[in-house]
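Case study 2.
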Amino acid sequence: MNTEEFRNNGYKIVDWLCDYFENIEKFPVKSQVEPGEIFNRIPDNPPENGENFNDILNDFDEKIIDGITHWQSPNFFAYFPANNSYPSILAEFLTTGLGLQCMMWLTSPAATELEEKMMNWLRDSIGLPSSFSGVIQDTASTATLVSLLTAREKYSDFEINKYGFNDKYKYRVYCSTEAHSSIEKAVKITGIGSQNLVKIEVDDKFAMKSEILRKAIINDIAQGFTPLCVVAALGTTGSTAVDPISVIGNICKEFNIWFHIDAAYAGSTLILDEYKHLRKDIDLCDTFVFNPHKWLLTNFDCSAYFVKDKEALIRTFEILPEYLKTTEVKYVNNYRDWGIQLGRRFRALKLWFVLRHYGLEGLRSKLRQDIELTKYLKEKIDSDKEFEILAPVDFNVICFRFKPNEIEDIDTLNKINEELMNLVNSTGKAFFTHTKLNGSFVIRFVIGQTNVTKENVDKAWELIKSKVNELKIIKGYK
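Prediction:
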């Protein structure tokens, strides 16, 4: 493909994307294909000779697009937002075209220095003090792993990196029973072991019980374990519960325990004045992560990770073979030493585009709109006697279920609500996912996509109610 062909085909892709966003609500939100259906459409062997770009693009329309679940649809209410924006997409065009490998300053000084500046912008915007340094990780899962590895090395005086684990190190890590599964994955990868992850009971708001945490720490010390790290959630994935950050931070300070805050989803709200109370004592943490790729109009992947002791971070990961040595290392950040990957994408560019295009006030306006829509829907659900909300609604997630008057058995209610959710999703008009809270199956209504409106919320709620009516007729519920 020569330059002129690339230019013409590039225009086709832009036109395709524009048409896609203008017509996205015509697609079923959740893909309706069966397992293996897309796989079987693709030839078993690659072509021997190159094919025409138009044919490839046509095959994308005919063979791929109906196997897509449309995360950018305003009728996507599942999991969490992965909201995108035109400025972010345009920045990705440039990033992809430039094809940079941003592993260190020398390989692209602008990439390194823009990343440092963007992390300062985000750090200041969410209220972390300037003593924290930031780096972009791909996801919060990676950030949590990086945090635990850094804690492991700092508390072992970097011996485990050198000699490996032995009986000398009997570490414990603590999180709530509602914490993200990435924490358990991280303790496995770090060699700490899943049996040494202590899951702390939660209260009626699904936040960690700090008094139970304290007792667990004291008990573990008595048993000969070393408490290594506490991971607190500033917005759990299931219900967006917020652990008692101040209390946990002070417990960690008292017992000299590494403190990591996972604010992957709800951390974006820290840019809002009305959520400034959540900033209280977050500086007690050693590391902090939130994802602009969830709710700040920056396309996946882009996770903002902040660390108080950057020297411990660098010492944990730094390896300096001869072919990576450079003369300016004392004066710049080489972000290849700030995480797991050597190779790094130019993620800072899309952050720069988004922050400059919208400004903080534009992003605040977006968050406030979603939160107001959530309050509006909560009032509708609260006033409907056939439904109940099972968790506090502090951000833009509502955990609710349908509850027929005559049914109290939890297993029966769980089956009913799973069936209801599947009926709604099968229409292709909206997409929801679930979690379980205290054993109850709840449907999560997440309002956060880029172009979601009150009309989308109303239509989704009416769709749910219509499927409830179908269930009532089929099952004979009152």
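The mean pLDDT is 94.
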